[in-house]
Structures are given as structure tokens and as C-alpha cells.
Amino acid sequence: MTLTPRKLNTYTMYKLPAAYLCGVRTKHIDNETCIVGVTHKWVNKNPFKSMFWAVQGMAAEFSTGALMINKIQESGKPVSMLVTSNNATFTKKATGKIRFTCNDGKATDDVLAKAIATGEGQTLWMQAVGVNEEGVVVSTFNFQWSVKLKQ
After folding, report:
1. How many CB atoms lie within 10 A of CB 117?
2. CA dihedral 12, 53, 64, 146 (to 10 degrees)
3. Which domain holds residue 108?
4. What is the pLDDT of residue 147?
5. What one-character DSSP code corresponds to residue 114?
6. Mean predicted confidence (pLDDT) in 3-29
7. Total structural domains within the chain
8. Backbone angles phi, psi at 91, to 5 degrees
9. CATH number reported for the structural domain that contains residue 14 in this entry
10. Are 127 and 120 within 8 A, CB to CB?
């Protein structure tokens, strides 16, 4: 089954309702890239007139996680995945439309192939960069994913 933005947004509505209610939506996904957007609104604001950091984190994590889910489905193997660590840097107030892009498709292929071949757990750092409508980076998130072939 090929993942599409529509399928991922439906998944978000049922499995991640907090993200859905905050406006987290997948805009694009292919073998190399996943783009997830979120718009600054009343429901996801903070007292400083910008987007709450956790909402940015949900969108950023979903951009990395959706890419990982897509690669696991393509492998046809039962693989578990889990975020084991993360960090973030905030460089500008997040207002307006923010797009988080993860371009780690190739690295995901490599780590999954190794996990499947060896049967041992593997880890991978994936990055999602949030950019506003003017093309300015507002935040950068890094997530360490652990993947392991289910026994």
C-alpha cells in the first residue's frame, strides 16, 4: 500500500487526535522526503503570540515518522519503530504557515536494510527543518529512531 498525504491525514485524525486538532497535516511524501505543515492558529498558540513548541514538535516528528512508516511498509517486513531521543533548536517565532521537511529517505533505507539483515536493533537520527512562508528557518528538530525486526 502506497502512503499518500490523504491516508496519513486520516491516520492522524484517528490515531493522533491532538496533532490533528492542532492542524498538523501531511502535504507531501515520496521515497526521499516528507513535508508536514501546520498553521499558527488560536488552538496551537502560546502566550508569546507564536506557535507552541510542542505543536512544532508534533509536526516535525510526524515528518520523520511518516517517512519511516513508508519505508517499513515498502520492506514488507515486520519492523518496530520508536523515538528514543530528540532535541530541537528554535531560531525565530513560528507564525503563519510552517512546513517541516525531512529528507532522510536514503538513510532510512540503509538503516532498515541493516536491521532486517542482522536482526539487531539499529538507530538513526532524522532531521526535520521548519520553515515559514518567507523561507526562514524557525526551528530544527532531530529525532533518534530505533528500529528492530519483530521476532
Report:
1. 10
2. -100
3. 5-149
4. 98
5. H
6. 97
7. 1
8. -115, -15
9. 3.10.129.10
10. no
Strands, sheet with 79-90, edge to edge from the N-terminal-most edge strand: 25-29, 34-39, 97-102, 122-131, 137-149, 79-90
User: Tens of pLDDT along 112-138?
Assistant: 999 999 999 999 999 999 999 999 999
What pTM value is reported for the model? Answer: 0.95
Burial classification of residue 118, based on how many CB atoms lie within 10 Å of its CB (0-12 exposed, 13-18 middle, 19 or more buried) = exposed
C-alpha cell at 149: 525486526
What is the torsional sign of CA 38, 40, 45, 50? positive
Q: Report d(CA 113, CA 133) in Å as an integer.
A: 36
Interatomic CA distance for residues 88 and 104, integer angstroms: 17
Give the model confidence (pLDDT) of 36-75 as tens digits: 999 999 999 999 999 999 999 999 999 999 999 999 999 9
